[in-house]
């Protein structure tokens, strides 16, 4: 019994560690002190302030824009590529199969500077576009890996069955393959979105003067001191994320229960 | 004809992607690393090995060792947290396991820089931890929890822990219960069960996590910048400085090439021990 | 003469350097139930896939209904396949699975409905129309797969080891049902299996395949009673195969075996005097007795009870093992000394072919 309590304590501590800084940010978003030091008294001023802070709102919308656009594009390319790599043989296949792991394993900073270098070489001006391109670059492999895990040998039998019944390649992909890989595609997209929101390093190298995203905005302020409206924004973000995640979880456990009954 | 177009649609994007966005940038960095920079940050097209010889300078070697040490300590601490965590999680219900693994991912959804900033509020001299301890009378002088190597390691462990937790948990949770029961049935003691059944099956998960923690830990310059107070440079800082402030791209490229080689070497080891590439990207 | 529906003309198939099918010629008649039988890896499934168009031939020609379809895609061939693991589309309901092929053919919806309804009745899936494959039992999944194939009114239905995943009892009842459906619709069935009991019980004709080549094509009865090679004899049913030498070939074949035994049998095939041949004797054609001292002396080393019959393993003086199948098991015990004889009308002489 004692052992079990110790176990629970350990789990609790690990989660406390993971969530501590986030909880602190949430608490301090209600703190009247502007210095983020001691908690003085409760206020909602920072939430009002937030909507007047154009730079912060811009940075935030840019971040969401980058994450959404790069997620959509990398999910589409990643999904069709996973299927393409599974189904077809082509001259560069081995090379491609090797290259797609590089963005997953090499240090982000190396990916960041290599993209910065090639942008400079191609005379691409740094902007939101270059950030989006960079995020697509590191997201695609994760989507491919996720989708590819569901493309097994049984799938090729289903393809043959559909072909046997007169389906062409497009219909096979649309009606047979897509419904099967759909969950993996969604989890790949979720991963791409998450990694994009979390990224600091690659955005740091590929962002231009007019393309502030949230991490860059915070990075520029961190030395001079961050105002609590950032905390307020973070709190709102977390609230949103939690709502989405909880509804997904409830939906899934509902489905599991249905499957059992 | 129709089939050919269909095939092209499915393979052309990935070919273009992997060549234009992956291969070319890396080849260009390799190319840059053999060039020279002028004093204004421009690039002179004269071939040299100088950048690679520069890496061997004592100050840089010392920095590499220190940076690797920080990364290794970070990795070890992450293992020491994740492994017991996963073993305990194994004993819980399926529902609990599902929710727990979901919770691990949540911090990612706020930006890692924001969370690092949260640590400043906690760790600094006038921060939450010090104030609490002072008020409680546990200490009478604030502790130096950041702007030093301790701060960097706390930040690294914090930011990278999920990358260890997820693969370790999924490998530990994947062990078939009947195997352990069979072991117990045959009279194996808990330690033997751990050594003969659990450890061998989870080693690749630990390697996977170690790779996903160690490699970023040598590059996350923003953590050493913010929580280390800029006193300790890790390799990431060095590369960042060469590209953005010192503007010596060839030298920065040479260090990057060096990091790529280290990465390939580590991946080789990972594969040698039976690790699968697809597991590295599968969270 | 029955109409030839499918003709494989000297077909070969190679995967890389591996020749799976060599110079394979076969005619399939309209309305028959033909079984391709052989050990795993013999190329029987490849033959099936060459007919369906899922593989293309390396050499030779494929005709369906006298039309050369060698270069025609699986999508457009009027044959359908029931796959080994059924390959039901997991995200589609029973009805969606069954109607998939008709939709591909752009058949009008109300006709699809009509046909789906009648086929569901035929395969007895009423009430399960909106279930997903994972909500069905093995037998029900089997029926969906069959329905999905036959609704297309194919000229030929190809079945690739389709029953092998079912348990024994279900398999038996599906065998009967499959045969019934085939008779009712008059569709030609080509069935691939490695299980000889399935082949013997369902087929009109059996094609025994070994190493990518046809060993024998015949009715189940003939294949069993008159195998034309040691391989066929051994693969189909159980067989005692013993060496013999031709002593005389005038009126009947006079043979000596086990050094000192002589027997005369009637056969249409001709053998040369002095030639060494093989004799195939089914276990049920071995007569075992304790009294009949004219037989060959042996000792019972094993008794296997098989329900309706009993198998005796008998070791002869010359250390050769012979299997015998008897109905009445009570007479014999292990270690009994017995005498055996072979019933002469059921001995099959075979030319000793050199096998690789």
What key phrases describe this protein's structure?
heterotrimer, A: 261 residues, mainly alpha, MetI-like fold, globular, C: alpha+beta, Rossmann fold, OB fold (Dihydrolipoamide Acetyltransferase, E2P), six-stranded mixed beta sheet, five-stranded antiparallel beta sheet, 8 helices
The end-to-end distance of chain A, rounded to whole angstroms, is: 33 Å
> N- to C-terminal separation of chain B?
39 Å
By secondary-structure content and strand pairing, the structural class of chain A works out as mainly alpha
Portion in helices of chain A? over 70%
The fraction of residues in strands of chain B falls at under 5%
Q: Mean pLDDT of chain B, as a whole number?
A: 89
Q: Taking Cα atoms only, what radius of gyration of chain B do you get, to the nearest Å?
A: 23 Å
Gyration radius of chain A (Cα, Å) is 23 Å
CATH topology of the largest domain in chain A: MetI-like fold
Separate helix tally of chain A: 12
Give the C-level CATH assignment of chain B: Mainly Alpha
* CATH architecture grouping of chain B: Orthogonal Bundle
CATH class call of the largest domain in chain A: Mainly Alpha
Give the helices and strands, then pairings.
The complex is a heterotrimer of chains A (261), B (283) and C (356).
Chain A: H1 2-28, H2 45-50, H3 54-87, H4 93-99, H5 102-105, H6 108-121, H7 128-148, H8 153-164, H9 169-198, H10 201-206, H11 214-222, H12 229-260
Helix pairs in contact in A: 1-12, 3-7, 3-9, 3-11, 7-9, 8-9
Chain B: H1 2-32, E1 36-37, E2 43-44, H2 50-55, H3 58-90, H4 94-105, H5 112-123, H6 128-136, H7 149-173, H8 177-185, H9 190-217, H10 221-227, H11 235-244, H12 249-272, H13 277-281
Antiparallel strand pairs in B: 1-2
Chain C: E1 4-15, E2 18-29, E3 33-37, H1 44-52, E4 59-64, E5 67-68, E6 79-82, H2 94-104, H3 109-122, H4 138-150, E7 156-160, H5 168-185, E8 188-193, H6 196-202, E9 205-210, E10 213-218, H7 220-225, H8 230-235, E11 240-248, E12 253-257, E13 261-265, E14 276-281, E15 286-289, E16 296-305, E17 310-316, E18 321-326, E19 337-342, E20 348-351
Parallel strand pairs in C: 3-8, 3-9, 6-7, 7-8
Antiparallel strand pairs in C: 1-2, 1-4, 4-5, 9-10, 11-12, 11-14, 12-13, 14-20, 15-19, 16-17, 16-19, 17-18
Helix pairs in contact in C: 2-3, 2-4
């Amino acid at each position: 019994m004692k052992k079990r309590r110790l176990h629970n304590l350990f789990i609790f501590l690990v989660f406390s560690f993971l969530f501590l800084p986030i909880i602190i940010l949430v608490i301090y978003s209600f703190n009247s002190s502007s210095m983020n030091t001691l908690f003085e008294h409760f206020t909602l001023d920072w939430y009002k302030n937030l909507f007047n802070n154009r730079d912060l709102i811009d940075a935030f919308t840019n971040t969401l824009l980058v994450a959404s656009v790069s997620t959509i594009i990398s999910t589409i390319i990643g999904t069709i590529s996973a299927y393409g790599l599974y189904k077809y043989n082509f001259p560069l296949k081995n090379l491609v199969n090797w290259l797609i792991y590089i963005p997953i394993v090499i240090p982000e900073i190396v990916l960041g500077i290599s993209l910065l270098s090639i942008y400079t070489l191609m005379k691409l001006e740094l902007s939101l576009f270059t950030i989006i391109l960079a995020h697509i670059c590191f997201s695609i492999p994760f989507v491919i890996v996720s989708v590819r895990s569901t493309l097994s040998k049984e799938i090729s039998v289903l393809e043959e069955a559909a072909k046997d019944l007169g389906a062409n390649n497009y219909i096979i992909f649309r009606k047979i393959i897509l419904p099967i890989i759909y969950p993996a595609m969604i989890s790949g997209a979720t991963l791409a979105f998450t990694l994009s929101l979390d990224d600091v390093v690659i955005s740091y190298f590929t962002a231009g003067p007019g393309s502030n995203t949230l991490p860059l905005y915070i990075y520029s302020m961190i030395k001079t001191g961050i105002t609590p409206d950032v905390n307020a924004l973070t709190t709102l973000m977390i609230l949103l994320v939690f709502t989405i995640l909880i509804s997904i979880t409830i939906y899934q456990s509902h489905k599991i229960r249905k499957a059992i009954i | 004809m129709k089939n050919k177009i269909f095939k092209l649609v499915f393979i052309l994007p990935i070919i273009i992607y992997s060549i234009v966005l992956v291969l070319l940038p890396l080849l260009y960095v390799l190319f840059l690393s053999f060039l020279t920079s002028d004093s204004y940050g421009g690039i002179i097209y004269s071939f040299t090995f100088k950048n690679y010889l520069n890496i061997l300078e004592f100050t840089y070697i010392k920095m590499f060792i220190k940076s690797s040490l920080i990364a290794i300590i970070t990795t070890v601490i992450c293992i020491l947290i994740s492994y017991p965590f996963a073993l305990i999680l194994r004993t819980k219900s399926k529902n609990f396991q599902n929710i727990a693994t979901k919770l691990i991912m949540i911090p990612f959804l706020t930006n890692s820089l924001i969370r690092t900033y949260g640590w400043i509020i906690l760790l600094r001299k006038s921060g939450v931890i010090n104030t609490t301890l002072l008020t409680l009378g546990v200490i009478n002088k604030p502790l130096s929890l950041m702007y030093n190597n301790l701060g960097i390691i706390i930040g690294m462990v914090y930011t990278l822990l999920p990358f260890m937790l997820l693969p370790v948990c999924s490998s530990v949770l994947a062990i078939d219960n009947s195997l352990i029961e069979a072991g117990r049935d045959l009279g194996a003691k808990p330690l033997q069960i751990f050594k003969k059944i659990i450890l061998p099956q989870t080693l690749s998960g630990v390697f996977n996590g170690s790779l996903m923690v160690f490699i970023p830990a040598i590059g996350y310059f923003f953590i050493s910048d913010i929580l280390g107070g800029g006193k300790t440079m890790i390799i990431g800082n060095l590369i960042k400085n060469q590209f953005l402030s010192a503007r010596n791209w060839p030298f920065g490229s040479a260090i990057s090439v060096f990091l790529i080689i280290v990465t390939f070497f580590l991946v080789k080891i990972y594969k040698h021990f039976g690790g699968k590439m697809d597991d590295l990207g599968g969270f | 003469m029955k109409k030839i529906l499918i003709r494989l003309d000297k077909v070969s198939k190679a995967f890389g350097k591996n020749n799976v099918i060599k110079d394979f010629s076969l005619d399939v008649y309209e309305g028959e139930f033909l079984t391709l039988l052989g050990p795993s890896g013999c190329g029987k499934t490849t033959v099936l896939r060459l007919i369906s168009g899922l593989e293309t031939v390396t050499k030779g020609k494929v005709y369906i209904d006298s039309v050369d379809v060698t270069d025609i895609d699986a999508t457009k061939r009027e044959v359908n396949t029931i796959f080994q693991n059924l390959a039901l589309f997991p995200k589609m309901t029973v009805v969606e699975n069954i109607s998939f092929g008709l939709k591909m053919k752009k058949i009008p919806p109300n006709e699809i409905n009509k046909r789906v309804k009648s086929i569901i009745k035929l395969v007895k899936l009423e009430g399960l129309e909106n279930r997903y494959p994972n909500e069905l039992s093995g037998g029900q999944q089997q029926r969906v797969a069959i329905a999905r194939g036959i609704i297309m009114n194919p000229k030929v239905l190809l079945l690739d080891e389709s029953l092998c995943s079912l348990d024994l009892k279900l398999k038996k009842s599906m065998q009967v049902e499959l045969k019934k459906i085939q008779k009712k619709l008059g569709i030609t069935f080509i069935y691939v299996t490695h299980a000889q009991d399935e082949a013997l019980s369902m087929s009109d004709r059996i094609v025994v395949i070994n190493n990518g080549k046809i060993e024998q094509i015949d009715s189940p009865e003939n294949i069993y009673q008159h195998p034309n090679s040691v391989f066929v004899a051994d693969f189909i049913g159980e067989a005692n195969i013993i060496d013999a030498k031709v002593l005389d070939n005038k009126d009947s074949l006079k043979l000596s075996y086990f050094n000192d035994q002589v027997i005369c049998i009637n056969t249409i095939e001709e053998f040369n005097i002095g030639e060494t041949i093989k004799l195939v004797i089914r276990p049920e054609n071995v007569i075992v007795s304790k009294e009949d001292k004219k037989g060959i002396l042996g000792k019972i080393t094993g008794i296997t009870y098989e329900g309706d019959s009993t198998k005796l393993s008998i070791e002869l003086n010359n250390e050769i093992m012979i299997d015998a199948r008897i109905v009445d098991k009570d007479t014999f015990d292990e270690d009994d000394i017995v005498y055996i004889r072979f019933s002469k009308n059921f001995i099959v002489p075979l030319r000793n072919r050199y096998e690789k």
